[in-house]
Write a structure and sequence with these properties.
The protein is mainly α and about 350 residues long. It has one domain. It contains 16 helices and two strands. Strands 1-2 form a two-stranded antiparallel ribbon. Helix 3 packs antiparallel against helix 12, helix 4 crosses helix 12 and helix 5 packs antiparallel against helix 12.
């Protein structure tokens, strides 16, 4: 085999064992318990931040399915996030639809958009695909400002979204549940459902087909895998999940505007995937924590040089953990196993 063939057949993304794509039962229960009890011990602003962590975790997970599972790089997730946010906002404010019912519509709209975008993207790979998605992310805020959509989107000024109240059943039971707390638990339930579905997807026949394309596209095609179908399907599924995250984000922030979905958001989601560990779905939560809290830490250290401090922290993390939180988790699991054995 020639050098060129060896390079072209090498996997772009390091493979993750199927058994390691999800946390163990004990670790999952501990993490779920921590997420469930946190709102009862913190202020509403922290609850709002934790809600955004869950929302970004969903978006990072979606990007992980695209990049970690099928090996396709994307810098355009902010476009699908914006599309999902505006879909939910328009349905809530202009149609009067219940906020929970808008999420499936956001997922469907974004799935169709992602699938259609994936068709011409079949001719691209690697850096060229990343550039094409980068162009999509740059163009989306400008498209949302067009006058033809202004009646629905609010144009440059954006659209205010009504924040939902907690169901009356809690009041009838004598429980005081704030809007922020209710939205947090609602988002947590949605995130858990998406996580379970995503893990089962990657363990299914379709997931194995996506990962075979990631590992070696030529070999996958020779084994009968429909490369074009599963590549576009990966784009569609990733965009659909990102659309749900966007819809939740619009409900949580109570506002949508074109300048809120710039390329900075796409880069932040990509960074979250890298910090959490490419191809490791549980790392999406760690990546989301990085996106939400590390910029605040950097600004607290130095308001004038917050960008430099953020860059130093990012370089430090990548230097120590080149495989992200996945490396830390696997190391801790290995140490725990050795301690139990001794």
């Amino acid at each position: 085999m020639s050098t060129v063939q060896e390079v072209s057949s090498a996997p772009v993304v390091a493979a993750v064992p199927k058994k390691a794509m999800s946390l163990g039962p004990l670790a999952s229960l501990v993490l779920l318990a921590l997420l469930a009890i946190t709102p009862f011990f913190v202020k509403n602003f922290i609850i709002f931040q934790m809600t955004m962590v869950l929302i970004y975790a969903i978006a990072v997970l979606a990007l992980n399915i695209l990049t970690g599972a099928s090996g396709q790089f994307s810098l355009g997730q902010s476009a699908f996030y914006a599309l999902g946010a505006y879909t939910s906002a328009i349905l809530i404010e202009h149609v009067g639809m219940n906020y929970a019912l808008t999420l499936p519509f956001a997922a469907i709209v974004c799935f169709i958009a992602g699938f259609l975008f994936g068709l011409p993207a079949l001719r691209l790979s690697g850096i060229y695909l990343a550039l094409a998605t980068f162009a999509l992310a740059v163009a989306m805020p400008q498209l949302l400002k067009l006058g033809v959509f202004e009646h629905w989107t609010g144009g440059v000024q954006g659209l205010v979204v009504t924040k939902p109240d907690a169901p009356e059943i809690f009041a009838s039971m004598g429980l005081k549940v704030s809007q922020d707390m209710w939205l947090y638990f609602f988002t947590l339930v949605v995130a858990i459902i998406i996580y379970i579905v995503s893990v089962n997807l990657l363990k299914s026949r379709s997931g194995r087909a996506m990962m075979s394309i990631r590992d070696n596209e030529i070999a996958a095609s020779a084994m009968g895998v429909d490369v074009a179908l599963y590549k576009t399907l990966a784009f569609g599924v990733s965009a659909g999940i990102t659309g749900i995250a966007g819809g939740l984000g619009a409900i949580a922030v109570q506002f949508v505007a074109p300048d809120g979905y710039t390329i900075q958001l796409a880069i932040a989601l990509f960074l979250g995937m890298v910090v959490g560990g490419v191809g490791w779905l549980p790392g999406s939560l760690a990546g989301a924590l990085f996106i939400v809290f590390v910029p605040n830490i950097a600004e607290h250290v130095s308001k004038g040089l917050s960008g430099a401090v953020f860059g130093v922290i990012l370089i430090f993390i990548i230097f120590l953990l080149p495989n992200g939180a996945r490396q830390l988790a696997f190391g801790a699991q290995s140490l725990f196993s050795k301690l139990r054995g001794s």
